Amino acid sequence: MSLRFLTACSVFVLLAATAFAGGRGEQEPFRVQDAWARETAGIPRNGAAYLRLSNNTDTDDVLIGGQSTAAEVIEIHTHERNGDVMVMRPLHDGLPVPAGETVVLEPMGIHVMLIGLNHALEAGQRFELELHFESGARVKTEVEVRPLRN
Ligand SMILES: [Cu+2]
């Protein structure tokens, strides 16, 4: 009797594990899409990268920074209107990425600031960017360098 009970339990545990693997287990906790940076002109000091970031977990998180092969320091910035000009400002508390939502980092908006570029960014290049979250999660992505607009 007790052996039968144990067997039934094992089957249940196995089924639960399978359901987990086949369901949300296949989905990455964070998904980065369309990561790109604009080509730099002349001798660059800084650059910026843009991307779409989805939080597929059940927990709100905050993008607080990162690291990259392309630059010394990574900061998360936003743009604000200051009179007639748009100025950049670091998001010191990071960028909230709520559970189940996608945030968009785009030109003239929130962006990944690449401070102290190690080299000029040339169209066609790719570089590595790792995003760091408040929860401790780290997500690696590749950033594609695109040509300057005419
Ligand atoms: Cu910036």
Task: Provide a compact summary of the structure.
The protein has one helix spanning 2-22, and strands at 30-38, 46-55, 61-68, 71-82, 85-90, 95-97, 102-105, 111-117, 126-133, 138-146. With 150 residues, it is mostly beta strands.
> How many domains would you count in the coordinates?
1
The name of the CATH topology is Immunoglobulin-like
Overall pLDDT level? 87
How many strands in all?
10
Low-pLDDT segments, ≥5 res = 9-24
What does this structure look like?
With 150 residues, the chain is mainly β. It has one domain (28-146): Immunoglobulin-like (Sandwich), CATH 2.60.40.1890. 14% of the residues lie in helices and 51% in strands. The protein has one helix and ten strands. The chain has one helix at residues 2-22, and strands at residues 30-38, 46-55, 61-68, 71-82, 85-90, 95-97, 102-105, 111-117, 126-133, 138-146. Strands 1, 2, 3, 4, 5, 6, 7, 8, 9 and 10 form a ten-stranded mixed β-sheet that branches. Strand 1 (30-38) and strand 2 form a beta hairpin. It is globular, with a radius of gyration of 21 Å. The chain starts with a helix and ends with a strand. Mean pLDDT is 87; it is low at 9-24. Bound molecules: copper (II) ion (CU). Residues 48, 77, 88, 111, 113 line the site of copper (II) ion (CU). Copper (II) ion binds next to strand 8.
